[in-house]
Amino acid sequence: MSDSFEIPSFVETVLVTGAGGFVGQKLVIQLLKLYPNIKIIATDIIEPPNHGVTDSSKLKTIKADLGKPNELAGIFEGEKIGGFFALHGIMSGGSEINFELGYSVNIDSHRKLLEAAHKHSEKYFSSSNLNEFKPIYVFASSLAVYGAVTPQSIVNPKTKPVIPESSYGVQKHVVEMIVYDYGRKGYLDTRTVRLVTVTVRPGAPSSAASSYISGMIREPLQGKESICPIANSIEDNSLDYYLTWVGSTKNVVKNIIHAFKIKQNDLIKISQERIINLPGIQITPRQILNALVKYGGEDKLKLIKFDKDPKVIAICDTWAGAFDNTDALKLGFSIDDEKTGYEQAVQDFIQEELGGKIA
């Protein structure tokens, strides 16, 4: 890999927020593996796991509420942070149900983190010989910023206006613009990546409307029931209608790191707003069920409980089923194989999260 895709040498410490979440944990693990000479600070509202790393010069875990000034300041104390991965947030369903909490976490805490990062940059990265070196700031946004689409839509980001149709989408887009402004002003080297739906996620179901996409694989393979909220039965045409844009866990984490490494000028040539939609592949809920049968057996279908949820459907109706990957691929981002990528993600889940054992 060329030097242009290596983390700049001035970055000695990076902060990962939302490090207790699934993607955050996988990101921390991968950073530790790829960059043993870089210190990782991992923070979340609950102290993130240390992944077996007890050397605080390699990984420092902090329980912190980023909305509280004292706790936010404590993260920076005694550190020289040259990079940020801002992954924390309330998921789509939770943001819609709890309007105030969604705005507090998904906008206010990000605004405070950016302000703190800016002040930190002025303190440590403003000397004359470091003018061109500003802390790199990656914000994880979402394709939920797009509205006026259907699951059958194919979005071209060059021509499609951003008009969110959910509180989550609004909140993400608001922060995208603030992140862009901090970059435009030269305060930080900012870039935003809009994540695809990550699958297959381990752990408990989340408040995301998309949670069922992983749930229909995750729970049945562990002998547990899973609710499919967009159909009433296996014969329901909704299983074919709700085209879904996804990416494997490995590829999404790889692309988040790649976003950190690309040069600012290369990004701006592609996107003046410094925003890139991460590449994905298209699947349907029926393909998910077919994969469940292929890798878990026909009997696992009995664990799928079909129960349409109008609240989930209302959100899913505002998601496009496909996006143009051209810009991301020009910048060197990776994409799962269109034919085999989803099944590979299922196999990865079985091997890495279930130890190769199906209940």
TrEMBL record:
Classification via PANTHER family: ADP-L-GLYCERO-D-MANNO-HEPTOSE-6-EPIMERASE, NUCLEOSIDE-DIPHOSPHATE-SUGAR EPIMERASE
Name this protein carries in UniProt: NAD-dependent epimerase/dehydratase domain-containing protein
Coiled coil ranges: none
Gene3D superfamilies xref list: NAD(P)-binding Rossmann-like Domain, UDP-galactose 4-epimerase, domain 1
Keyword Nucleus found: no
Record organism: Kwoniella pini CBS 10737
Pfam families found in the cross-reference section: Epimerase (PF01370)
Keyword terms: Carbohydrate metabolism, NADP
Keyword NADP in record: yes
UniProt domain NAD-dependent epimerase/dehydratase: residue ranges: 14-224
